[in-house]
């Protein structure tokens, strides 16, 4: 398959304006910090990018990938996959083609098409030379497929590459390890996450649950003592946190249910939260 246009045609001012306008609108429409989006603005971005690829530069890869990203934000996943397909068809040999596969794989995963998602992620890891984002993407697919061991291997590989830079995804690695019965390793990782993200309710539940379920007698006593020192607002958010929605592995969900029951105020039976086994 021949390599097609990965750059805008020179001298095509209309195409350049449509592209820059579409990208700018898409960026303004989404706020990562507040997790909000302006649907009307995203629609305008989609229109600009559609003008680009439908009329002005139909073989420009960047038009398809950016429109796909906008369509993902709009929840139009089928159309996004179609755009990623076209982008990859146009430039399968581009240095960043693995990113197209990564994004397509993530979209397929969101659709529940895990086999196809895994194929894309495998290729992204290979072509991206085990880039950490590709490894995390493949780990997410393995997690969705309940292949805890493979998921832990991918998350662990990224943690090993950046051992001093603790990030939120380390918690997912900890929970995979706990599901595999590696309770000591899981607790060690969770504690490192808690050192940096001590006010995150999900982290507080994870550390307490893992200490209570898989630690020593001293760990179990410490879990209850530490919970007493957690700010009341964090405790309340922790009790209400939807861990099932966060796709915790079954063993971790059971441990969380036991922990939150153990720390429930006297006279209650524990928090009314969705901790049933997946």
Would you tell me the overall average pLDDT?
89
Through-space gap between termini? 44 Å
Residues in helices, as a percent range: 55-70%
Annotation, overall tally of beta strands: 2
Instruction: Give a quick account of the main beta sheet: strands, pairing sense, barrel closure.
Output: 2 strands, antiparallel
**Uncertain segments of ≥5 residues (pLDDT<50)?**
1-5, 266-278
In short:
With 278 residues, this protein is mainly alpha-helical. Helices cover 68% and strands 1% of the residues.
Summarize this structure as a short list of keywords or feature phrases.
two-stranded antiparallel sheet, 278 residues, disordered C terminus, elongated, 1% strand, mainly alpha, disordered N terminus, 14 helices
Structure description:
This protein is an all-alpha fold and about 280 residues long. It has a domain at about 165-278. Helices cover about 70% and strands about 0% of the residues. It contains 14 helices and 2 strands. The protein has a two-stranded antiparallel sheet. A hairpin with a 4-residue loop joins strand 1 and strand 2. Helix 1 packs parallel to helix 3 (about 60-75) and helix 7 (about 130-145) packs antiparallel against helix 8 (about 150-160). The protein is elongated, with a radius of gyration of 22 Å. The chain starts with 12 loop residues before the first helix and ends in a 16-residue tail after the last helix.
């Amino acid at each position: 398959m021949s390599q097609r246009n990965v750059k805008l045609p020179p001298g095509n001012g209309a195409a350049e304006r449509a592209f820059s306008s579409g990208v700018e609108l898409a960026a303004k429409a989404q706020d990562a910090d507040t997790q909000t989006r302006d649907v009307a603005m995203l629609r305008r971005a989609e229109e600009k990018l559609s003008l680009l690829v439908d009329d002005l530069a139909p073989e420009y890869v960047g038009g398809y990938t950016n429109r796909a990203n906008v369509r993902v934000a709009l929840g139009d996943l089928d159309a996004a996959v179609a755009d990623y397909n076209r982008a990859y068809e146009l430039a399968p040999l581009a240095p960043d083609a693995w990113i197209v596969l990564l994004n397509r794989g993530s979209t397929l995963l969101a659709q529940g098409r895990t086999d196809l998602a895994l194929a894309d992620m495998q290729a992204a890891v290979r072509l991206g030379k085990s880039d950490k984002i590709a490894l995390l993407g493949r780990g997410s697919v393995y997690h969705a497929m309940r292949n805890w061991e493979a998921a832990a291997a991918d998350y662990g590989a990224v943690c090993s590459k950046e051992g001093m830079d603790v990030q939120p995804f380390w918690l997912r690695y900890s929970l995979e390890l706990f599901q595999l019965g590696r309770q000591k390793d899981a607790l060690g990782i969770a504690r490192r996450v808690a050192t940096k993200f001590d006010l995150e309710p999900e982290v507080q539940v994870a550390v307490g649950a893992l200490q209570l379920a898989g630690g020593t007698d001293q760990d179990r006593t410490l879990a209850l003592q530490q919970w007493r020192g957690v700010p009341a607002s964090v405790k309340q958010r922790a009790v209400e946190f939807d861990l099932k929605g966060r796709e915790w592995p079954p063993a971790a969900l059971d441990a969380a249910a036991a922990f939150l029951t153990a720390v429930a105020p006297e006279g209650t039976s524990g928090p009314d939260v969705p901790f049933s086994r997946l």
